[in-house]
Amino acid sequence: MAFKYTEEQLNKLDKELLISLFLGMQDQMEELTKQTEALNEKMQLMMEQLILSKKNRFGRSSEKLEDPNQIRFMEVNGTIVFFNEAEAVCDLEAPEPEELELKKVRPKKQAGKRTADLSDLPVQRVEHYLTEEELTAEFGKNGWKQLPDMISRCYQFIPAKVEVEEHHIGVYSSKVDEHMVKAPHPRNLLRGSLVSPSLAAAIINGKYVNAVPLYRLEKEFERYGLAIPRQNMANWMIRLGEGYLGIMYDYLHSLLYEYHVIQADETPVLVNKDGRPAGSQSWMWVYRSGFMQQERQIILYEYQKTRNASHPRKFLKDYTGICVTDGYQVYHTLEKEREDLRIAGCWVHCRRRFHDALEMVPKAHQKESVLYLIMNQIRAIYREEGKLSDLSSEDRLTQRQLVVKPLVDAFFAYLKQISSKTPQNGKVKEAFTYALNHERYLRVFLEDGDVPIDNNASERAIRGFCIGKKNWEMIDTINGATSSAIIYSIAETAKANNLKPYDYFEYLLTEIPKHEDDTNTDFLEALLPWSATLPEHIRKPVKRTEK
Predict the structure, then answer these.
(1) Predicted pLDDT of residue 91
(2) Which of 61-75, 395-409, 457-471 has the lowest mean pLDDT?
(3) Is residue 312 classed as helix, strand or coil in its secondary structure?
(4) CA-to-CA distance for 433 and 426, rounded, in angstroms?
(5) Under 8 Å CB-to-CB from 218, ≥6 apart: which residues?
(6) Cα(167)–Cα(420) distance, rounded to whole angstroms?
(7) For residue 269, what pLDDT is reported?
(8) Which residue has the higher pLDDT, 501 or 83?
(9) Alpha helices in 141-284 (DSSP H)
(10) Confidence class of residue 468 from pLDDT cuts 50, 70 and 90?
(11) Taking the CA of residue 407 as centre, how many other CA atoms within 13 Å lie in the half-sphere pointing to its CB?
């Protein structure tokens, strides 16, 4: 227990001792104040993390605000400024409306939608007609006439089935000597294995497209009378990835260099046996062609143990152009090393930080916050950018310079104006620091009509893998991770080009083995997802409403 002086004891102390005690107390108070402030800052950060974690778990994920037209911009004395909705639309001479009741606009029912949905499906006709005797009994002799049929439709589902394809290969020998010959026949897809292109495609479609773990596929095959241990399926995927599909992956990798805009992202993954302690974190990187290039899209995954700059440096060593990223520092390092590579930033990551900071403000006071105004500025930028999606690259660039650039200029001007008034730590400071530090990267899309405003396309491309890894949690080996990257790449590329993944994989695994002895890869040109020579059944049917 600390010693306490009484009033009588203090009166007996000499002046020097009192001064010494007072100065010591001052030092202690100053130190305690610093400690209290530090603890308050830590508590604030912990509360922010708690609030965000609860919102991420239980709240909605949308970053949308209530009013998309809240912010307006104008030029005053040569400076772009923003002002509120009332000032923007105010017109004192506008006549008063005669009616204030809002008229509901009902969406027009789309005619022929059901017919369009059924138009591309095969039809099995089932007839229901009355016999001559039944008609005579109902109407009398010759007392009826045939009207147009009433047609009723319903969907029929035909479940999968498993068959054994038995090849009988003719074997012939000479009567004169021991010379023998076999009739031409296809090789087995994998030596010593019963797997066929259709079965392999079914496993790939289940695991890599529909995110079904192998143990569930094993049980599903058992219901069809097929006993395939999951270990066999895993081995097949590795061998097929290395032996056949890897050839297509490498070819797509070389084609990716031809695009002057690409996008990149990465996500963590656990690999069980990679020479490190079990469960060590590894990374799956994704590289894709620029989203604004809608035709001939390429999406490639690459497995790596770490997240350092050496991996994109090697993968992009022959690439020249613009790469859109989420602001991860290793890409900026690459840009500094090379003159032929430019990095573009992601406005979604910028917006997300301001959104997280706004979530820290009590809901009742959010609209009074500077953060709310900033979020509306970003929304205005996105609103105007969204109007340009159907334009050509040249026209989009022109409109970005005329309409979007002034909004971006005003956004950064406002941030710089008030940044000194922001807290020195926490989510608000993090948001301001991110935006201002990445300004040069966030402006790149204003200089090229093919550069997207954000990196959402890469995040969508990696989503299938993220859904899958939640089901199987961990990849067992490095070979499994590498083969998974190859197969995921082809699956996502097929989907991006409107192909049916199962049919495309079956076709690839049927055609590629035929060229096993080829000395070059020219044959792959005809197998690319956008090749005009692909069988029509591989392409996803296009509904009439989409044409």
Answers:
(1) 46
(2) 61-75
(3) helix
(4) 11
(5) 228, 229, 230, 233
(6) 78
(7) 80
(8) 501
(9) 197-204, 214-223, 230-240, 246-256
(10) low
(11) 23
Strands 299-304 and 180-182: what pairing?
A: unpaired
Q: Which amino acid is at 367?
A: K
Reduced DSSP (H G I as helix, E B as strand, rest coil) percent helix, strand, coil of the chain, to 5: 50, 10, 40
What residues form DSSP beta bridges with 288?
263, 299
Query: Which residues 6+ apart lie within 8 Å of 202 measured at CB?
Result: 160, 502
Strand 341-344 and strand 281-289: the pairing is: unpaired
pLDDT at residue number 333: 93
* Vertex 212: Cα angle to 207 and 213 (nearest 5): 85
Which residue matches tokens 């491309």?
461
Instruction: Tell whether the torsion through CA atoms of 99, 102, 103 and 105 is positive or negative.
Output: positive
Which of 349, 327, 357, 347 lies closest to 430, judged by CA?
Answer: 357
Residue 300's H or E segment, with its range, is strand 299-304
Q: How far apart, in Å, are the Cα atoms of 375 and each of 52, 381, 436?
A: 17, 10, 15
Looking at residue 518, the DSSP 8-state letter turns out to be: -
DSSP letter string, 18-80: HHHHHHHHHHHHHHHHHHHHHHHHHHHHHHHHHHHHHHHHHS------S-TT--EEEEETTEE
**Alpha-carbon torsion 509, 515, 519, 523, what sign?**
negative
- Residues near 353 by beta carbon (within 8 Å), at least 6 away in sequence: 427, 430, 431, 434, 435
- Contact predicate 84/70, CB 8 Å: yes
